[in-house]
Sequence to fold (463 residues):
Amino acid sequence: MKKLGQDFPKELRRTFLYELEEEWYLPLLAEHRGIEVQPIKRSNFGEYNMAVNYLTSVLEESAAVNTVAVYNIDHMAQILFSGADAEALLDRTLPANIKDMRVGGCKYTLLLNDDGGVIDDMIMMKVSPNDFILVINAGHDITDEIERDGEKISLVADIDRIMRHKKEGEDVIAKDLSDELVKVDVQGPLSYKIIKEVYGEEVIKNRRNPKKNMSFFTFNEIDRDGHTYYFSRTGYTNRWGWEIYIPKARATEDFKKIVSRALELGGLLVGLGGRDENRISAGAFGLPLMGSEYDEVHDPINSPLYPAAVDITKDEFIGKAALMKVLEKDVTKRLNILISEGIAVGRGAYLDGKRVGTVTSSINSPNVSLEQRLAIGSKRKNVNDENGNAAIGFVWLYDNLFETDEEGKDITTKDDKPIRIALELFREDKDGNPSGRPVLGYITQEGINEATAHKALRHIENL
Fold:
């Protein structure tokens, strides 16, 4: 079958909004903040040259979601699967229950390999009975042979991995829509105000009952003068907000309107650093990051979104046999949010001198309360200051460290106070032994920021 994925780029790609970030947003932000224009700090992300942060710090941008945060997510790709057999193909390749989806519904799911490892995580939108859009991560649109560090590597795009399972005679066509749409996410309690002002209230109403607001994990397809927009409400940061797929012809004008209003309301355009913080700090369990908590070697069992992404009762999907073998062994591993006095990514997690897991993500956060920071027991000034910060992240644990009740549910509070299990986070030598002074931290299930994405929009309509 002819490949559908992109060739590996000869140089880092730029999103459609790259020039706007450089030539329009930087001067606007500098004027707004009364600071000098400086180069944007950028990094390779999925073979895109993406902003880590702008003139504002990662900590400032991380805090913007508490009012309103705007994200250039145009590095993510949108893949359309169409045809009478599109649903059947997707249902037997992806682990989510796709046959139960309604038109206008969204679904979070994973693309697994035969060993149960995670190739990608994604959002799926059911546009019609025969049309589905998959929103995939940056770099997962490339099919090519490359050489890296003297080793030949085969890259296979999600679109090709799925289409390889198309049976002879099936009616399925796959197309990359990324050149037609520009993805911009608007999140935080003032997101409703911005969407309503820029696009009108009707774009985020319930498609089946326009008197009501859009439900969580649904989307609207809106036509404006012959241009098709998609507005989804899937909780990119688990806060109130929307993901907007803007027709390219309208993207420049719309982006300027959205970002200008966000600045007026005290919000910011947020780069990769703040985005990662916002996803880790989302609710009691956080949102796992592809390439950190999820990878091709490890399966997703007992990660926070596993039950939403995987319907293990389905007859068939890629990786099911491997997951079943793991489940038969009564796997006890857990992915848990970690609060620590400093960045600890890659360190071993130790409890009473015993290694209990590995830190997979870690980033400084302004969203950890003083009470939560003081509970670390750190001597660091920045941790204990009233307006200080601490690091948040994820740790994959070999076993569940929380006690469970008679129903098998974790006991996460005692006397109405959150249970916090202290850990020491060590660097390790070549033999795997802990070395040096540990970073102090603890695991908890109280969360960093409240998850609001699923809550009724009436709470933010009049802000």
Q: What stands out?
A: The CA atoms of residues 97 and 311 lie 6 Å apart. The mean pLDDT is 96.
